[in-house]
Amino acid sequence: MIVLIMNTFANTPEDKKSKFQEQFTRITKTPELLAKLCSDIQKVGMPDYYPSYMILHGIGAFTGNPHEGALLKDFDAPKVWTELQKTISTARYEV
């Protein structure tokens, strides 16, 4: 997750990162705004794509076929999606 955040904001000027962080903090600390954000995310729904951008950042990208064994065999995506939605309000990420 850290690498994804770093890459997303790598070319963003510091003043814009700061403004984004301020708004993100405001949203996550305001129950009504956080509820709206969560509702919007639920409408978009659970991701259903192959996460190659994440897999290619793993150690397998340097030691062999990064896609071989990259996904957990018995991964319960709907369960994890539900758990993430329950815990996101307590997570804090710095830009």
Global shape: flat
What is the β-strand count?
0
Share of helix, binned: 55-70%
Low-confidence stretches: none
Listing every helix as H and every strand as E from the N terminus to the C terminus, the arrangement reads HHHHHH
User: What distance separates the N and C termini?
Assistant: 11 Å
Instruction: Please describe the biggest sheet, giving its number of strands, its sense, and whether it closes into a barrel.
Output: none
Gyration radius, in Å: 16 Å
Mean pLDDT: 83
- Note the beta-strand portion: under 5%
Number of domains: 1
Indicate the structural class: mainly alpha
Question: Given the structure, what is the number of helices?
Answer: 6
Question: How would you describe what is shown here?
Answer:
By secondary structure, the protein is mainly alpha-helical. It has one domain (2-90). The protein is built from six helices and no strands. Helix 2 (14-29) crosses helix 3. The longest helix is centred in the N-terminal third of the chain and has 16 residues, at 14-29. The chain is flat and about 45 Å long. The mean pLDDT is 83.
